[in-house]
Write a structure and sequence with these properties.
It contains 5 helices and 6 strands, in the order H-E-H-H-E-E-E-E-H-E-H. It is an alpha+beta fold and about 130 residues long.
Length: about 130
């Protein structure tokens, strides 16, 4: 992959904040001193195509958001219906569930794009 300073800057933001999600508009607002809007969108697309970040739709914000893809094809994801947070679910019990679905129901779950909808700890307290 051809590396540029701008791509490294954007990717390092995701890499250093692995559990955070970002709207493209937030990235444009926060990185506008370092790169223009078109460059940010172009770099997001390239990072997504390389599976370095994942793109999901946030229904509450009616917009796509981006998150670091830490081996996302190897685990499920939790999506908070309250705040919209995406949580990587790397857990042996979840892996057993995925295996059970495949072995007993013949269904292969696309873990990269999977999300189980519910409420995170913070939203559940409210």
């Amino acid at each position: 992959m051809y590396e540029t300073n701008k791509k490294r800057l954007l990717y390092s933001l995701f890499e250093n904040n692995k559990d955070e999600t970002y709207l493209a508009t937030d990235l444009v607002d926060n990185l506008s001193d370092d790169m223009n809007k078109a460059t940010i969108y172009r770099q997001l697309k390239k990072l997504e195509e390389k599976n370095l970040i994942r793109k999901t739709f946030n229904e509450k914000k009616n917009s796509y958001e981006y998150q670091y893809a830490q081996k996302c094809s190897e685990h499920l994801h939790l999506k908070c219906a309250g705040c919209g947070k995406n949580i990587h679910l790397s857990c042996s019990e979840a892996n057993s569930f995925v295996k059970h679905i495949m072995d007993n129901h013949g269904f292969i779950i696309n873990q990269y794009s999977s999300s189980i909808l519910g409420l995170c700890k913070e939203c559940n307290k409210q």
